[in-house]
Amino acid sequence: MVKGKSFLIGSGILVAIVILFVCFMGPLDVKALSKTPDETQPIEFRPDIVTFDNMEAFGKLEKTKAIFLHDQHTDALEKKNKDCLVCHKTEDGRMSPKFMRLKDVRREELTKIYCDNCTKCHTETIAAGEKAGPVKCDDCHKEQPLIQSSRVPMGFDKSLHFRHYRAQKNKCDRCHHEYDKKSQKLFYAKGKEGTCRYCHKKEITSDGTEKVISMRFASHLACIDCHQKTEAKQMDAGPVRCGGCHDAQEQLKFEKVKRVPRLKRGQPDNVLIKTGDKKGRIPTMMRVPFSHKAHEEYNDTCRVCHLASLESCATCHPLVGSNKNVKNGKEISLETAFHKRGHQSSCTGCHESKQQDKNCAGCHGFMTNTRQQESSTCLRCHMVPLPERTGELSTSKAAKMARLMPRLWKETFGPIYTVDVPKTVIIKDLVNQYEPVEYPHEKVFDTMVKQLDNSKLARYFHYEDTTLCRGCHHNTPAAGKPPKCANCHGKPFNADYLFRPGIMGSFHQQCIGCHQKMGVEKYLSCTACHKERKKES
Amino acid sequence: MSISRRKFLGWVGAAGLSTTIGKPASAATNKQFAGYPDSFAILHDTTLCVGCRSCETACNKVNDLPQPDKPFTDLSVLETTRRTTTKTFTVVNKYDNPQKSGHPVFYKKQCNHCLEPACASACFVRAFTKTKTGAVVYDASVCVGCRYCMIACPFEIPTYEYDQALTPRIRKCTMCHPRVIEGQLPGCVEACPMEALSFGKREDMIKIARERFRTYPDRYVNHIYGEHEMGGTSWLYVSGAPFKELGMREDLGITPAPELTAGALSSVPIIVGLWPVLLAGIYAVSKRKEKIAQTEQEQAAASALDQDRSEPSQPEEES
Questions:
Q1: Distance from C-alpha of B277 to C-alpha of A258, rounded to nearest angstrom
Q2: Closest residue by Cα to residue A492 from B112, B232, B208, B113
Q3: Do A493 and B52 lie within an 8 Å CB cutoff?
Q4: CA–CA min distance B208, chain A (Å)
């Protein structure tokens, strides 16, 4: 009996200790873990951080990825009058962006290259009594580095392309190349130029025999090499340091060429987009006259539309999309390629995205983006050739096209909106607390027309003189005087017309909704539209 | 047949336990309540609300509430997050829009009028009633002021008139029950210029919400708050921002509050009714047993005594 009692006391003490431990040590532990570096030191952001991630190719990492401050090292070497070759090797007169090697090597070898060379230099510098980087593993492979990357991707826009083109004295072959498999050499093919990313993808790609280096590697190899050599010739050269290209502030300082001349790649000014495929299948829709020249101006790179090559759309996209599980464009039919909603590369997708502009959203924000377009809208692009035009359209010679196009569009961008609109409309459906609203109908209309006139795209699609009116006067036939709002919108919450707002709701939703979307602040107070009603004495 | 005492007690225990476990909790309430048919609901579309406080003004007027310190036209009150009080049955709060900065979201807060109200289930004098119109109404005449309803409400809505020494009441939105039975719209709904509040049959309100999701899929979070929360409420909400961002609880689950307690409460009569009988029985049985044992003992003793007297002991000298 005594034995049992002492056992109970013993276990009771043990339980109490465990509880105490959990209560006090538990939170302490959690606190220690959640301690973020910003509590002690703020995180620094730099554009020149290189994360050594090439080990990832070998599978699971043993340590966290080391980060490397490239520009800091460049500066340090410059001070000692040393150049890049301390860390980078050259091949055929070109410096490799890889560290202390030219080719990819095996895991153990790669580890050795980094660990040995880094620590060796750091140790020597310390021995010389100077400040140097870490020599211990965990000082490079940090769990939570206090420095993080602010690197922004670098893009080669039209302006930058033109500046290079000008500086290289129109020699495209300085950058553009093709690869000859037989001789295993790069060569320049005139008229075949495309964007780098058509071949150089995000990662190394391989067709079984030949590897194509990644975009990241290719750009650092070619750009930096050329910039360095140009600089050596005491000429105006591009950046060679990380921050020069990848710093957001630096990018803003790039000189922008305002009027970039058209690229010369043999592209047509105008195209009659075929709706049939190359096999000569009979197209069912009318062909679409398309101004290639105008669209070049709207976009910064060809890649916006030409996703994979600078060929015509029908080269990759068939009339009937392949149902095989492929990813070469064949799975996407021409119809989808041109009309897919929400995709920047399709005609409809890009045009519809413009409806989100502040000037357009007032009306278009109310329209559902799942709506089916009226079939008459198709004819805006798939134009019916008029009898006298038939002869011209059926021959697609460039010269004839060039003559034809301006005429076609002149006729379609109508000098429209000669509609008679009332100057003001007195809305007195809801006179209660306030006086009737004097709605400046003409002023609103004129503002809308002015904004519409600024956009070629808008002018083209608001082709009837009542198209614009239907932004407000919705569900109304586009003829004659529209009915009053109150004719449809009456008492609210009518179960027979569940989705139809009442008269007060419809006015406020329409007016305020449009003002909100178009950034017109005139909805923040009631008296901006309504005059306070004078009390009858 | 004979059973041991131990076995008997085991059976009784098992029988008692079986009444409290192994059955779904709702079975104890004997019904599945999905709201009164054709009851009304209000749909609050926060994407339409512009934060004008017209609803607050109207609420104040129809409920004859005292005028607030700052007038309703003063929109600066939106800068602080408010809650309902005994003098304001509804408040509009302003929240930052995580998707679109500079375009705040407004959310009107008031009693949600649950289909199966927690306040009503917590109230032991039945001061709360879920009416057929959908409103949860309060009867001050029976209220004892225990404030259990305030603790029970997951939305923290009922408020208590602490400043009334003699006749304190619970105050909250009535969903304008008196107006609705007269065929009028609730004050806030009638006043809303944007029709951000819609009033009608609950099924219709859900239909409207779904239609808006379908028409403007980019504009809404695809969820009707209140359709199922706490078993469903008569106020429904749709929003473009996640409801969590509007200070609305997303952890409530879809079980109505009464159901959470129904199982435990349903076993109360059994425990209260059965256990005294059972314990008394056991007590009686053991008492009786003792009594029998005692009488047997007494009898045995008596008979032994009798025997002793009738058969006098043999003379010792005989051996």
A1: 98
A2: B208
A3: no
A4: 6
Predicted structure pTM score: 0.74
What is the chain B residue with the closest CA to A365? B216
Q: Nearest residue on chain A to B104, judged by CA atoms?
A: A516
Answer whether B192 touches A (CB < 8 Å): yes
A244–chain B nearest CA distance, Å: 32
Q: Do A509 and B216 touch (CB under 8 A)?
A: no
Report DSSP letters for A228-268, one per residue: HHHHHTTS-----SHHHHH-HHHHHTS---SSPPPP-SS--
pLDDT tens digits for A173-201?
A: 989 999 888 888 889 988 889 999 999 99
Taking CB atoms within 8 Å and a gap of at least 24, the contacts of A271-278 are A271/A401, A272/A393, A272/A396, A272/A401, A273/A313, A273/A338, A274/A314, A275/A334, A275/A382, A276/A319, A277/A314, A277/A318, A277/A319, A277/A334, A278/A314, A278/A315
Q: Which of B189, B195, B216 to mutate to test the interface with A (most CBs of A within 10 A)?
A: B195
Q: How far apart are CA A274 and CA A287, in angstroms?
A: 5
User: pLDDT per residue over A467-485, tens digit each?
Assistant: 888 888 888 776 778 888 8
B206 touches chain A (CB under 8 A): no
DSSP state of A415: -
Mean pLDDT of successive 10-residue stretches along chain B, which has 319 residues: 70 61 46 78 95 94 94 90 94 89 90 94 94 94 94 95 92 96 95 95 95 91 94 95 92 86 79 87 92 91 83 53
* Subunit contact A370:B217, Cβ cutoff 8 A: yes
Distances (CA, A) of B274 to B13, B14, B280, B286: 12, 13, 10, 18
Any CB–CB contact under 8 A between A506 and chain B?
A: yes
What percent of chain A is predicted at pLDDT more than 90?
21
**Contact list, B185 vs chain A (CB under 8 Å):** 492-493
| CB spacing of A516 vs B204 below 8 angstroms | no
What token pair was written down for B241? 């921002």
- Average of per-residue pLDDT across A210-224: 90
Tokens representing A518 are: 């178009």
* Cβ–Cβ < 8 Å for B84, B63: no
pLDDT confidence band for A131 (50 / 70 / 90): confident
Q: Pull the structure tokens for residue A302.
A: 């060809």
Res A1 pLDDT > 60: no
Q: Which residues contact A41 (CB under 8 A, 6 or more apart)?
A: A146
User: Residues for chain B: how many in total?
Assistant: 319
Write the DSSP symbol of residue B69.
S
Q: Which of A355, A508, A521, A523 is most worth mutating to test chain B (most B CB atoms within 10 A of its CB)?
A: A508
E strands, B120-219, in order: 128-130, 136-138, 159-160, 170-171, 197-201
Helix-strand-coil percent breakdown of chain A, rounded to 5?
A: 45, 10, 50
Which neighbouring-strand residues pair with B137?
B129
Positions of E strands within A101-184: 147-149, 178-180
Q: Count the residues in chain A.
A: 537
Distance CA A458, CA A414 (A): 11
Q: Provide the chain A residues 132-171 that lie in CB contact (below 8 A) with chain B.
A: none
- ipTM, two decimals, is 0.76
Taking CA atoms, what residue in B is nearest to A371? B215
Give which of A270, A302, A303 is closest to A288, Cα–Cα: A270
CB of B157 closer than 8 Å to CB of B165: no
Are A445 and A452 a contacting pair, CB within 8 Å?
A: no
- Whether B194 contacts chain A with CB within 8 A: yes
Write the residue in A509, A523, A526 that is nearest to B195 by C-beta: A509
Selection from B148, B98, B94, B117 nearest residue B33 by Cα: B117
Residues 433-472 of A with CB under 8 A from B: none
